[in-house]
Specification:
The protein has 84 residues and is an all-alpha fold. The protein has three helices and no strands. Helix 1 runs antiparallel to helix 3 (54-81). The two termini are 26 Å apart.
């Protein structure tokens, strides 16, 4: 972590990274579950389609990380402009 980053911003960055990983796992699951439909084989059970929901969960986690980073940067900017 560099000098210009606050601990809150680092936590937001971690949420974005975790959200991206969860999103890509969900995207991969979506590709795997849709493939049998194009290949003409038996579709996967409904539980496999539930794993596809990780795309939405990953997007939400990443969005929360972005909002947390924004809030930390605003607090840091506000603290820098307050005369002491």
């Amino acid at each position: 972590m560099t000098e210009t980053q606050s601990p809150e911003a680092g936590a937001g960055d971690r949420l974005v990274r975790v959200g991206a990983i969860v999103f890509f796992v969900g995207a991969l699951a979506t590709l795997v579950t849709v493939a049998p439909l194009f290949l003409g084989t038996e579709p996967f059970p409904p539980v496999a389609y539930a794993v596809c929901m990780l795309m939405g969960a990953g997007f939400a986690i990443a969005a929360a990380g972005v909002l947390r980073s924004i809030a930390a940067q605003r607090r840091q900017a506000r603290a820098a402009t307050v005369p002491q």
